[in-house]
Every structure is written in structure tokens, then in C-alpha cells.
Amino acid sequence: MTVMFDPLDPEQLADPFPTYRALRTEDPVQRIPVGGGTWVVSRYEDVKNLVRSGDGLMQPPGFTTPTEFAGGPAERIYKGLMVLNDAPVHTRLRKLAEKAMTRGAVERLRADVDAVVEECVDTMLERGEADAITDLAFAVPLRVICGMLGIPEADRTQMLEWTPDFFRIFLPSANDAEGIAACHHACQNFIDYLSEQIEFRRRTPGDDIFSALVRAEDEGDRLNRDELVATVLSLLTGGFDTTMGMISAGVFGLARQPEQLERLSADPAGVAKSAVDEFLRWESPVGVTYRHYRHDIEVAGTTIPAGEPIWLLLLSANHDEAQFDDPDGFDVVRPKNRHVAFGGAHHYCIGNQLARLEGEVVFREIGKRIGSIEVTGDAPRRPNFQFRSFLTLPVKVSPAA
């Protein structure tokens, strides 16, 4: 009997890999009853082709807002999120946001990232133990992106509390009523907080990216309030949460396979870059993206009618045996690692260069300074198949010899 993909199944959330393996083998283009009928694509080649296609839409033609969000705070955010829009709105919003994420702008942050990472690793080694989430994987990207945006340090821990429920906005059909209510609540918290920050910057503008967006005009078209809130929210949460997933996956993997830490330690500066790509492939912090098409398309011999939602399982694609040797293991020097963790086409991850820089510095420092990592307790995962991360990751660390 063919396995049916179920985004709400606790067993599949805890360990999706057996289901994904079965889908790739037996039913690579599966239709599930979620949202009135959704297609699930699981093989690497199919996912790669669709995610890189310029024809794919984030929303079906004529669509406005999911009925689950109608009339609530999540609707306001949903309409203004760059990643959930298509041209011309997506083009305008991305053009503004990209100014903050150019290669030059990111490279100018290297000294700041170095300092933050060194401080975090210092603290971990002084204590000898840590929660690799709050003390490293969360701390580094949050401090960097909040510094870029000018978010006060005292306010930053709220972001970690609100973000998991905010992320429910991306797949409303994969949530129950309680999850939808939690999403509305998180969105309202972000709206209230960021609106206060907007007014502060209008009175007292700074030289941070947030202030620049408040002042921004794109060909005479100033961002409206909801677009501004949503754009800052995209940069903020996208700037730390998915990077947190990648870093925590790397720490967990290095603890489980100490021979990989030895490989990293043998050449920290040389191996760190390939290690980042491997952790992105192995864990895929964004586990799924989605598309719609104006016309019928054929995928692996199956016809998907125009307008029907398609979930592209990035995590499954990145574990496809047809593309990767030993896909469920990881190799910090894996050659030809053509993963699809950053998506593609118009929606290629806008923060990919920042994520790579942060990951590179983190794993370079781990390779240079940490001799062993041991997971010392339970490491529960966030119950969300789209945005994968650990909730806590208690570890014991010892310095390199």
C-alpha cells in the first residue's frame, strides 16, 4: 500500500524520511486531500525543474487570501509578504529588499559576524555546555539581522517566541484551527511591535535598513504600512530562523558523527564552505515550497491541472538516492552538492549570501576551536514540516587540543 503524505501526522513530522523515501519510489507525484486537493512532488529532478521554472506562480490566478486568514491580522501580513506574491508586486518588493542583501553589503558584515561568533563560541567553551540553539544557532543570525535592522537588543528574544507561529502563514491548509489562531496572534504581535518601530523611525531616522525602508520610494510608490511591516518581517524572520535551522543541524550532525568534525578541524577555513552546503542539503531548513501554474503541466508522467496547488518537497529532493550518494548521511566535503535548499527562479532565497557567510564563520570557528561535541539530553524538533529546526539542543563541548 502506497504511503500517503500527511503534514499533520506526528510520526511524519518527527521523522519524514521514511515517508519521503516511499514517495520517491512508489508515488513521486501524489495528490493528497489537504486544501481540497494538493499535489506533492518528491523527486530531485522534478523538484529542481519546477522550482527553477520561471512559469511557476506562488498563487493561483485570481487568488487573494486564504479563507483561513480572512479578516484577521494574518491576512494583512499575507498580502504584503514578498515571498507570497507574484509579479508585479513581488518584483517591486524584492527590488527594495535586495538593496540590503547585495554581495558587497553582506561582505561588509564579515567583521561583525566574526566578532559575534567568536563571542558565542567563547561563552560555550567557558561553560563547557550550552543549548546550541539559544547560545549559537539562534544567537548569531538574530544578532546580525537585528543589528542590520536596528532592532533593540532588549526586544530580540520576542522574535524567537513569535516566529514559529508566524511561519504557519505559509501553509494555512496544513494547520488545524488552533494553529490558525496561533498564527493570527503571532501576526498581531509583529504588527503592533513593528508599527511602533516604524513610527519611531519616522520621528528619529537612523542609518539602519529598517529606517531606509521607511524612507523608501520605488519609482514614486512608497511602501504602504502593511507592505512595510511584511517586508521588514520577511527580512527579520528569514534572516535568522532558517539560518538557525542550518547551524543547529550542523552542530547536531557533528555531534553524531565525530569523524566529520575531525575532517572540519583538519582544514576549518577550507572545509567550512562545503560544510554549510552539506548542512543545507542534509537538513533543508525550508523543507517545502509551493507553486501553481496557469496551464496544465506534466510531471513524471502525471498531468497536474492548471491552478491546482503543488508542494515541492525540497527536503525529500535533497535526500534523493538518484542524485546523492548516501543521502541520509552527511559529508562535509561532499563533491558536486547541487542541493535545492535555497529554491530557485524569482523566489531564490534573498538572504542566501548572508546565510552562507554566517554558516561559514560558525563552522570555521567550530573546526578551529572545538574538539568534541556531545548531545546531552533530548533534542525535540519544531512540529512543522515546512520550517525544520530543533527547539532545544543541549550539548557538552570541549576545546580543541
Automatic annotation (TrEMBL):
User: What GO molecular-function term can you cite, just one?
Assistant: heme binding
Keyword Cell cycle recorded: no
**Gene3D superfamilies from the entry?**
Cytochrome P450
> Which keywords has UniProt assigned to this entry?
Heme, Iron, Metal-binding, Monooxygenase, Oxidoreductase
Which Pfam families does the UniProt entry name for this protein? p450
InterPro entries in the record = Cyt_P450, Cyt_P450_B, Cyt_P450_sf
**Per the record's keyword annotation, is ATP-binding included, yes or no?**
no
Enumerate the PANTHER family for this protein.
CYTOCHROME P450 YJIB-RELATED, P450, PUTATIVE (EUROFUNG)-RELATED
- Similarity remark: Belongs to the cytochrome P450 family.
What is the recorded name of this protein? Cytochrome P450
